[in-house]
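User: I'm putting together notes for a lab meeting next week and I want to include a structural view of one of the chains we've been expressing. I don't have a solved structure, so I'd like a prediction I can at least talk through. The sequence is below, exactly as it appears in our construct file.
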Amino acid sequence: MSMSAATRFMKVADVYGGKSNIVLNLDPTALYALAAPKTPTEVREEIEKMIEAGEVVLSHKYSRYYFLWILAAGASEV
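Assistant: Thanks for the context. Below is the predicted structure for the 78-residue chain, given as structure tokens.
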């Protein structure tokens, strides 16, 4: 495992370690992006609310929220 992969895993554990329902309902790519330091709390909370409400959050649906935030924030790097 590369150092960057290990770092991503550790960040996911830091953010979602006690929230198995979130981890079980998102694919690794979505988890890595949500746990990234530059991801705003509002985006995480919105996705968490959707999952808690019983919605199936697919990567393409998640990406829509995330990339809308990126465009609005003018972020060049995630």
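A couple of points you could mention at the meeting. The two ends are 22 Å apart (CA to CA). The mean pLDDT is 77.

User: Perfect, that's what I needed.
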